[in-house]
Amino acid sequence: MNILTVLGARPQFIKAAAVSQVFLAEGIEEDILHTGQHFDDEMDRVFFDELEIPHPIKNLSAGGGHHGAQTAKMMIGIESFILDSKKKYDRVLVYGDTNSTLAAALVSAKLQIPLAHVEAGLRSHNLAMPEEINRKLTDHVSQFLFCPSDQAVQNLKSEGITDAVYLSGDVMLDALNRFKPKAIQRSLPGELHEEGYYLFTVHRPYNTDQASRLGEILCAIGELPYRVFWPVHPRLKSKLHAFEIPKNVLLSNPVGYLDTLNLLSKSIALITDSGGMQKEAYWMQKNCVTLRSETEWTETLERGWNQLVVNDYKTNIPRALQSKPGEWMPKYGNGQAAKLIAETLK
Ligand code: UD1
Ligand code: UDP
């Protein structure tokens, strides 16, 4: 069994860290093709180094640019790679909902190589999000659909997809269980020692592409009673100088996965628009404020563990941070998703 995994963005490296080692243990041969969507060392190399992810067989260097150009460049690279390869790939595997996911999905569908989609069935029902387009199209050309939740299975059913749908649980829980014990032994940046702090991340176009919205969010963050640690996503690199950074905010370059888990585990709460981090906060039993109008991870909203805030940030962020969530229940599987995926593909 030869699998070609196509990935390219930060959260996909973390998912691959969980799955690739199980493939190895199960005797599945895997080649990793990196689209190059993320390319800074802090967005790319650090994950391969820290998380023992097999080295990619090739990097297509297709990062940056507008969506159409980026996706097209990836498609050309993926197609050529497969056609030129001496190996015959039995399956193509993709994670999540990025442009790298969609590019590989379209190429493998046209080349008629069965496609496995890990994190299938997620829906925000908001087609203004590029990810919603990517995940819907990918699901509709997939032959193996690995769902993290019952809701994801139901979402696929409501679109007429019922064959080869597997409730695997979330591979990000596998990753968290494996790396958290090591992560929490790390030390925090000195400035964070004394009192508590919030962890803050933001990278969705909805929040980062309108200066007025990001400005309002930063004003609200500046009024919080504790320090705020903010590892800044590179899409904001050239934009941040236009903003006044509040005094309680500690800016950082993006940090690795181990540092992120450590920072989250010791924080008071998370303020984010990240998909993956909403779940990581939930698994670590931290309050989460999600700066979006909806989430595809709807289960995290139950009993108030995660709250959506999309306007009047000065009032709504502190209010959400103060509320006490209800009973915590395990969600998104048992941390053995990768094993089910490997066994199914075999
Ligand atoms: C992408 C995914 C998003 C995912 C996020 C994870 C799509 C449509 N979006 O968003 O679903 O949540 O990754 O972080 O696939 N840049 C750098 N260095 C890097 C990476 C990006 O400078 O290492 C800059 C480039 O200017 C680039 C911009 O950030 O054009 C946006 O990067 P891109 O990968 O297109 O989208 P993300 O916002 O990272
Ligand atoms: N993450 C990281 N460093 C950071 C911010 C996030 O390693 O500076 C990790 C985080 O722990 C999670 C994943 O990256 O596992 C989420 O990626 P991101 O928020 O970029 O994308 P999304 O999940 O929204 O697609």
Keywords, separated by commas or semicolons:
13 strands, Rossmann fold, binds uridine-diphosphate-N-acetylglucosamine, binds uridine-5'-diphosphate, six-stranded parallel β-sheet, single chain, globular, alpha/beta, about 15% strand, about 350 residues
Structure summarized in a few sentences:
The protein has 346 residues and is an alpha/beta fold.
How would you describe the overall organization of this protein?
The chain is α/β, with parallel strands linked by helices and 346 residues long. It folds into 2 domains: 2-167, Glycogen Phosphorylase B (Rossmann fold); 185-322, Glycogen Phosphorylase B (Rossmann fold), CATH 3.40.50. 40% of the residues lie in helices and 16% in strands. The protein has 13 helices and 13 strands. It has helices spanning 10-25, 45-51, 67-84, 99-110, 130-140, 150-158, 171-183, 205-208, 211-222, 257-265, 275-283, 313-322, 337-345; strands at residues 2-7, 29-34, 58-59, 91-95, 115-118, 144-147, 165-167, 197-200, 227-231, 249-252, 269-272, 287-290, 306-308. The strands form 2 sheets. The chain has a 7-stranded parallel beta sheet with strand order 3-2-1-4-5-6-7, with helices on both faces. Strand 1 (2-7), helix 1 (10-25) and strand 2 form a beta-alpha-beta unit. It is globular, with a radius of gyration of 20 Å. The relative contact order is 0.13. Uridine-diphosphate-N-acetylglucosamine (UD1) is lined by residues 9-11, 37-40, 43, 63-64, 97-99, 130-131, 203, 234-235, 237.
